[in-house]
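Fold these two proteins, one after the other.
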Amino acid sequence: MGYLRRQAVIAALTANALRPPRGFRAGIPAFAAGWFSSELAPHLLTLSAVDTALHVARKGSPRSRAGLALAAVSTLGIARLIKGSRGVNDVAEKALVEGLGVDYVDQLDAPPSPADLRRPWRQVVNPFDFHTEGIRVVRNIPYTDAGRRGMLDIWMPRETPVDAPVLLQVHGGGWAIGSKDDQGKPLMSLMASKGWICVAINYRLAPRNPWPAHIIDVKRAIAWIREHIGEYGGDPRYLAITGGSAGGHLTALAALTPNDPQFQPGFEEADTHVEAAVPFYGVYDWAGSTGLRNATDMRDSFLAPRIVQKTWQEAPEVYEAASPILRITPDAPDFFVLHGEYDTLVSVDQARLFVEKLKATSKHSVVYAELPGAQHAFEVFHSTRSASAVRAVSRYLNWHWNTWRHGLPVDADVSPEEISTPVAQPATD
């Protein structure tokens, strides 16, 4: 491939990341083309610069002027991508202040600092390096009898803690693919280094296992944690839940349906409530109740044939029961919702409407961070945007755990003086 063609590809990837096409069908290829170029914009810029430098050194043909022009335009576009990703920390911090109160930072173990956003060079060079000193992972613990799909991993400090807070991670993948090994690693690595116990689960997948097998397994995992997490140093009384995409849907639905016997066949008496929920780029409207085209297209062209295996007309009650936006009550737990502005797989409008109804209905705190320029799955691997988003979630969870463990109301009116000296946590990297 010649220089002009290579620069044309980089320019196309940059344009797609800056302004991806809308619509459920166009969104899939737009995501596939834009995900890496959006999150790895510095790497893309380096690639373009090296390619241009080598081309100039070889004294390219007159046709290369067009390639040089494309490279210049791409550089401006990539610089805009990088600037947008660098601004995520301010956006997320503003969301936390608006949702929790300006004094929420006084309730943290330590106030945030610029050092919190620094990333090790190995993560910059290799965004898929999830090695973190001071933590260990206990793998493939069965929590159901579903074989590989019924196993979980526990991410924890190397030295077993005592009564540590617990975070349940639910992977995405369209309810049909994915595993506990694929997602949530930046967040789990960080939280485990701060003394948390993180539980990453597999669950049964469609089409082999149609809905509601997925949410039943999430509920079983919650019940397992309540019964067994003390053996690993976790506090079974405190459980937060997180996940992205389909995992974001399952996170929100599990949080909004505590102890619902419909989703707990055979273990109806188990306690499946959670204290807080942090869904990333979740699907909140299975039923199409919002009227959003993205929701109805997903329902009719994907959920019906592959996941539910019944149409909306055949079983509207199934879709309504599975829609988090229709399950909101005043008793909804505390939520921190994150979504990308340019998500082409799940429209950001779903998150906006979900949060709007949460704020109007729930008695508890609601935080919403809409990340500028972000695509779907923006926190799966290390990036500038991922670092900011994950650390914002870390601050939120730390704030929530501190207020909860001291028996204080989880709202913006807690006086910092009411927080006692934090319990010592294992040292971080």
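Now the second one:
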Amino acid sequence: MANLWSGRFEKSMDEIVEEFNASIFFDKRLYDCDIAGSIAHITMLCQQGIVNEEEKEKIIRELQIIKQQIENNEIVFNAQNEDIHMAIEGILIERLGDTGKKLHTARSRNDQVAVDTRLYVKKEIKEIMENLRHLEYVLLDKAEKYYDKLMVGFTHMQHAQPVTVGFHLMAYFQMFKRDIERFRDCLERTDYNPLGSCALAGTTIPIDRHLTAKLLGFKNVTENAMDSVSDRDYILEFIGSASICMMHISRFAEEFVYWNSQEFSYISIDDSFCTGSSIMPQKKNPDMAELLRGKTGRIYGNLIQLLTVMKGTPLAYNKDFQEDKEGLFDTSDTLKKSLLILAKMIEKTEFNIDSIKKHFKSGFLNATDIAEHFVKNDIPFREAHELVGKMVKYCELNNKDFDKLTDDELKSIDGKLSLSLLPDLTMEGCVNGRVSYGGTAPKEVLRQINEGKKFLVTIHS
């Protein structure tokens, strides 16, 4: 079958050019979005009196048959089909003749591909938000289980202050909460109907774009036809949001990797999320965490690829835009799987609290608490900071912990120091005292968990 645009050409495409030009092998997954757009379009054309009721019904019926046949793998596509839009229309014309030729009235592939990808992005955002929501519930459950169990908090990968495991997990809850909000915002900006913009300048045919927007579930129509067919911001924003989300996944995965090491032994990852070594029989490698960390790079690559494609394209539509789809599809597929795997891995991982306690003896984790206690005893913070620094230095030189210092030793460090000036030096005492809003005190962690539950109830993907 000749290409549907071949009227002004005397020669057919070179075979290698035809293959290079074709996007059917990857954009065929848009078939359901394309058919939905076509059904809405022909419904509008009928209401506007541009096609009659019988023609509309024939086209809709045949489109539904084509959809079912694609899903049943009864239709085989090839490079001559060029893309999913031309493929479906070509099949329709073969079966319905002149009636099928009326479907493309008052639209172009330019606005057709735009509506298809917007419908696709909307659908994928909703699925991703549901996956994120599930992950957040898993985090809440695990945080609630360990809300008062202590662990070491780090800065610069150095022992910093004691925190609770639940507090640490709730930090990731906040990251993924922002991801939900970002995707929700992206959905808002994606939710505009470009269909009816045609090639770049609209049409003389009396169409009703607001009707197709309503039929397709868009909240409104795009304002400018030229922008409508050349805009890929919604895809860039989608991949950008996915990149930030994958960065959060990667950070968590990195902690799983070192928490799982013998040096830390903070966690026990379920065997179903690990692999062994082909040569070392004792190994239990956190491969899923490492893969999650590694998958982040491909999504970053998809973002840079599309930004690079778009940066040199003048208005309006350009064939370069065909390069928007493979990265989009790969990003969505990768992120959805990554979120599901991370959630399952968290569910099946437990913290080794006894092993974690062994780490409390190093790093002077209660140093800041001593300084803050000095402040509460009318010592200016900078002076308090210096006094505790001297205590740390003395302990390092004499291989001691704070709680082993005598009154005489404290006096030798600085005349202002005494045992009576020191606070509760236990890790529990330090953590329980951090009751500031957003702090690590167990009762504050429980508040954060409850706020997290309230937030998730408001999310309707």
